[in-house]
Design brief:
The structure is a homodimer of 599-residue chains.
Chain A lengths: L10 H9 L6 E10 L4 E11 L2 E6 L11 E4 L4 E4 L1 E6 L8 H8 L4 E6 L2 H20 L4 E6 L18 H7 L5 E7 L2 H5 L3 H12 L3 E4 L8 H9 L3 E2 L5 H9 L3 E5 L7 H4 L1 H4 L8 E4 L5 H6 L3 H10 L4 H7 L2 H6 L17 E4 L9 E4 L2 E5 L2 E2 L37 E8 L8 E10 L2 E2 L7 E7 L8 E7 L7 E5 L8 E5 L2 H14 L2 E6 L2 E7 L11 H17 L7 H6 L9 E4 L2 E4 L4 E3 L6
Parallel strand pairs in A: 1-4, 1-5, 6-7, 7-8, 8-9, 9-10, 11-12, 12-13, 18-22
Antiparallel strand pairs in A: 1-2, 2-3, 5-14, 14-15, 15-16, 16-17, 18-19, 19-20, 21-22, 21-24, 23-24, 23-25, 25-26, 27-28, 28-29
Helix pairs in contact in A: 4-6, 12-13
């Protein structure tokens, strides 16, 4: 259960404080109250807190002050509601919920709406529950959405577990579950897939919000059909027209600024120029890597960015507070500084640059000038969840051999083509040489090998193929157990020996990312929690991930988001060519395809 | 149960229609779509309906049209979401839910948020259930709030039934209950009354909205304490400052235009001039008499009025649609024209004057140019609910005698002073003559008798006192079983014989209002349903009520809302002097008081 009593359980105390019969626990004096209900700044305001909730907000709270009341002199600073991330995946930070909370609290984030989609691909419902339970231990609010699409591409991949309708029904009864996670299978909704509609029905029958994910530029009948299916929000829009259409259809438009998503600037003009009612717009991050959290910020960064895109600061703040809360039916619980709500707030000296000078959640002082003042609590991860890289045996170079179909000297093959700054890949075709009965990559033409190593059930399965675009030189390999969405292991390399070394290394450390050259390890990020997350601090993980990126560059890779490109190569829902544990995937026609081209 | 399936139960059909696989039931062509989400008018829009819900809203819905699809050519008319009354009492219309629905549908009202407070005072939980069950039979949406304050003034009156916390808990499980009715006992909340807070807790534990009612101009600590107690809205504000304060405290500001409430004009400046975010403002009627419904309209009248007060039509419409729906957690169910929502809409040729040219609810064509096209369904009222005027025996003139405390020739008495156009009364003091041991009213000084006749338990109780301000002349009496809040019977007259005749007449017809002069009945409104409502048509009841008002004027009464003034004389929660079944009530100090003044 949440560690804060319900408003109605402590209403009597709040009344007593508001009217002056009992002293408040905390009183903030002389703040510029950012009122997101009225959309005003109210100077010279006092705010009284009792039992973790706001009890009194208004002029002089002198009558709420007793001998033991903690007084905070705001000296005219803005009191801003704690920031909410309307849609995000904790796993993208490579951190457990406790470590993620630790990283974002100093940035003023006091609420996350988190979809544990990644761990659910590894550990299924149990993984969701582990995230959920650790989330409830945090000093900020982490509401969980139950992942909806696992596998994300049925028949084209084998995740560590699947989510059934009964799992969704069960999760809807857990205290921290706020809705259904992003309904990524939009073609499934448009075609009326019964399993997906049953998941939506389970969430709606429980009164919960259904998350959307419509990743297509088509705003015609398919989009309308998706909206008619029930998803209540979408964060996949990238253009003003996407934003406008979602709002008109009665969906929330979630605008992302993540580590690699830049979807606020193009869409926010729907408000700043087209003049749409802003209440349906919500800011979110979707995916933030540890380096972004440590170096740039979190929701403070998103709000700041929205303001630089021309959005009024008070409107931008509504998009990161009240709008998000209202969307999830939590308007009377979080998202504003008003009586009864959780006492989550920031003190800041400027609404445009939004420095986060102090952070309070549930009335507790959590951070000051970027420094965390409290420890977050780790959950109880069972041993097996920390040993989720299950190879049947140590791999050897031969496991990465691609046998030629004949003895023709060369052969026509399909190659996954990485495209700079884009998630979709190209479906390339080329001819490769055969040596000793094996098809060989070609360093000169930047064609190296890629392998999908099964890691959930210890099947010993290795799927081998070719990839182009990383620019690797020398004898090297990079392996990662972050491998969306099924999260097996992706190994990319110029040399089969190095590929085996890298894969075995991740098995030994129970997951993460490692890069090898000439028989030695250049960098390692250990992510033993389900092979996705670390229990260490954000800055340590970020530093390691930084060294890994640097090593990739040393090996010749000049891509902007090289690690992300690597980790998305097994994502069969995005065109054009992907790899999975079942084989090479034609992600245009959504079917398995052979490595060797037909003439 | 509501007669419309849940969105998620028919999602597949909606998808099929939206994408063009199945034909819609109804398609509106070429409408100017009033989009309350984006706050835009979208010309040349089509709207497709299936299974009572919107399936497709956008450009050309030709793909949704089949051989059996009903086509409505809007010819450019505005398609407006059906109007919602955010807070109201059906009983004020003197009509049952079926008859009330019949009266308001042609005015474009498709949703009522109704608090059956009046019948609950007569029949308790059973009365609420009877209203609730009839409400669910209607072709429009009537959501019920569970009344919270019965009695409204504990210790000062005896209603026909009381509402316990267990009753609230039970009602929260009924399908049509949307929240807790207006928390009128605001001093009780401020003092932390356990019973009231337990009712709020029961509603909140069920996830329902708690209605407010803070009828005081004091915006200091008491108001803040009330907000901290949990009521989520308030409709008792009358000034801009009231509106502003409610919004700032995170409450909804409900603005009334009822038959006798004119609270929009003064408060809407908070939006139109002060520029507050309008999303927290909601339009409502609170109380509409049948004459208003028949002669002036319902929510169409309120929206029209808001526009004449300077509000942008689209903003005013949001206040009567989306804002109301969102407040009650029904944003994905009603309040907008968007996929999945109940297909409740109006066609109108002008957003400023808002003529209601056609009304559809759940996709059914209910009214055209003011004429109703369907019959509403009556509930199953048990016989005893139609016989709720239980006098112990026929009354006689002597029952209205006020015995003098001594034989002094004259005596100092307290007199209830009616004030034109105001709900509060004056606590007057004067001296009256004693004749034959009885204290007599004084026609010359406009002091006549008032009696509170017990009618719920047949106790035979009659409380006699004096009232001034009606201006009655001649030998007359007016009796009414609409007698807020306990709804016994209030009889006001210049002559004890006439008072007995009037009271007995209401007993014979099982409630209503009657006026007598010189032994003959001038006018009668029969309200046999709990002594509050009629099962006849609004226009018939309105005509009778009109004749009654005319008869009051014939008898010398020149007050603007004479009937309402009469019916409020037993309401002990509004200052200064009232009458109840327990005696004369000092409604300033909230205690019973003697009729005779102390020297």
């Amino acid at each position: 259960m949440h560690s804060i009593p319900a408003w109605h359980e402590i209403a009597e105390e709040l009344i007593d404080v508001a009217v002056g019969r009992k002293p408040a626990d905390l009183v903030v004096r002389n703040a510029a109250w950012v009122n997101v209900h009225s959309r005003e700044v109210l100077k010279n305001s006092d705010i009284a807190v009792s039992n973790g909730r706001f009890a009194y907000c208004g002029a002089d709270a002198g009558h709420c002050v007793g001998a033991d009341t903690v007084i905070v002199e705001a000296d005219g600073m803005y009191a801003v509601p704690g920031l909410c991330d309307g849609h995000m995946h904790i796993e993208s930070g490579m951190l457990t919920p406790a470590r993620f909370a630790e990283a974002v609290i100093p940035h003023g984030t006091t609420t996350l709406f988190a979809d544990p989609h990644e761990i659910a691909n590894v550990l299924g419902l149990q993984g969701v529950r582990l995230m959920h339970d650790e989330a409830l231990l945090q000093p900020i609010n982490i509401f969980m959405q139950m992942p909806s699409c696992i596998p994300s591409a049925p028949g084209l991949e084998t995740p560590g577990a699947t989510i059934r309708v009964e799992d969704v029904e069960e999760a809807m009864r857990w205290p921290g579950i706020i809705g259904l996670g992003e309904m990524m299978n939009f073609p499934g909704i448009v075609s009326g897939d019964g399993h997906l509609l049953a998941e939506i029905a389970a969430a709606r029958a429980a009164g919960k919000t259904v998350g959307g994910h419509y990743a297509s530029p088509d705003l015609g009948a398919d989009f309308h059909a998706y909206a008619a299916g029930g998803p209540a929000d979408d964060h996949e829009g990238t253009r003003e027209a996407d934003a406008v259409m979602r709002i008109r259809q009665g969906m929330r438009c979630m605008m992302r600024l993540g580590s690699a998503w830049y979807d606020v600037e193009k869409q926010i003009t729907a408000v700043t120029e087209k003049g749409l009612d802003p209440r349906g717009f919500i800011l979110c991050t979707d995916d933030c890597h540890p380096g972004t959290l440590v170096g740039e910020g979190h929701m403070d960064r998103v709000v700041r960015h929205a303001v630089t895109c021309g959005c009024e600061p008070l409107v931008a703040l509504q998009m990161a507070t009240l709008n998000s809360a209202a969307h999830f039916g939590l308007e009377r619980e979080i998202g504003s500084i008003a009586p009864g709500r959780r006492a989550d707030f920031i003190l800041s000296s400027c609404l445009r640059t939004l420095p986060v000078e102090a952070v309070y959640a549930r009335g507790r002082h959590l951070a000051e000038n970027g420094g965390l003042l409290v420890a977050t609590t780790h959950g109880d991860w069972p041993e097996h969840a920390l040993r989720m890289v299950n190879l049947k045996r140590d791999l050897v170079a031969d496991d990465f051999c691609i046998k030629a179909p004949g003895n023709t000297g060369e052969v026509a093959v399909k190659v996954i083509g990485v495209v700079e700054n884009q998630a979709p890949t190209k479906h390339l075709q080329t001819t490769l040489a055969i040596r000793d009965g094996r098809v060989e990559g070609c360093r000169e033409r930047d064609i190296c090998q890629i392998a999908l190593v099964e890691r959930h059930r210890g099947t010993g399965g290795v799927i081998n193929a070719f990839v182009s675009g990383f620019g690797y030189t020398g004898r090297m390999a990079l392996a990662s157990t972050i491998a969306h969405d099924s999260h097996h292991m992706i190994v990319v390399g110029t040399d089969r020996e190095q590929m085996a070394l890298a894969a075995n290394r991740l098995a030994a450390v129970h997951g993460g990312m490692t890069i090898w050259r000439d028989g030695g390890e250049l960098a390692l990020v250990e992510l033993p929690v389900a092979g996705l997350m670390s229990q260490r601090r954000a800055r340590d993980v970020a530093a390691e991930a930084g060294r890994l990126s640097a090593a990739m560059a040393e090996c010749g890779c000049q891509l902007n988001n090289a690690l992300m490109q690597h980790s998305l190569l097994a994502l069969p829902v995005i065109p054009e060519l992907r790899i999975s544990d079942l084989g090479l995937v034609d992600a245009v026609d959504f079917r398995l395809t052979s490595l060797f081209s037909e003439i």
